[in-house]
Design brief:
7 helices, binds 2'-deoxyadenosine-5'-diphosphate, 149 residues, binds magnesium ion, globular, alpha+beta
Length: 149
């Protein structure tokens, strides 16, 4: 079953948006299989954003993501990787569509509330980076027949 890694960044936590954001993915019909609030250390943050290490904003990005608690999550469902990216919206919140998380709640690229894996392979890498297998729950929604034909 397809899974993605999502993280409500420290700005989303500080702004009290945790419930609102989790609620959007629950209401959509995806399944939460991993959830924890943690303050990421430098090493974890640098590994997570490894692909951006040559970018000018890398240092600020790592310092922001480690600046306070974030909510790390794994969500499951058919097509969840791409769908979550659409629910999250464009990287720059000013161009993110209204109705998306970034479009509704943010104004700045450096404070864009939430991370979501950009591809299935990226999701697998990020899930194993943030969650040991023992912290993931293998379960099925009892209402699944009302969600999936
Ligand atoms: P996304 O988070 O939409 O996958 P990304 O992977 O390109 O976007 O970049 C990771 C994060 O880095 C992004 O959420 C915010 C920050 N970022 C990206 N581009 C930036 C820029 N030009 N200036 C400052 N921060 C940037
Ligand atoms: Mg990205």
């Amino acid at each position: 079953m397809e899974r993605t890694f999502l993280a409500i960044k420290p700005d989303g936590v500080q702004r009290g948006l945790v419930g609102e954001i989790i609620g959007r993915f629950e209401a959509k019909g995806f399944t939460l299989v991993g959830l924890k609030l943690i303050i990421a250390n430098q090493e974890l943050a640098e590994k997570h954003y490894d692909i951006h290490k040559e970018r000018p904003f890398f240092k600020d990005l790592v310092s922001f993501i480690t600046s306070g608690p974030l909510v790390a999550m794994v969500w499951e469902g058919d097509g969840v990787v791409a769908s979550a990216r659409r629910i999250i919206g464009a990287t720059n919140p000013l161009t993110a569509e209204p109705g998306t998380i970034r479009g509704d709640f943010a104004v700045s690229i450096g404070r864009n509330i939430i991370h979501g894996s950009d591809a299935i392979e990226t999701a697998q890498r990020e899930i194993s980076l943030w969650f040991p297998e023992t912290e993931l729950a293998n379960w099925e929604l009892t209402i699944k027949p009302w969600l999936v034909e």
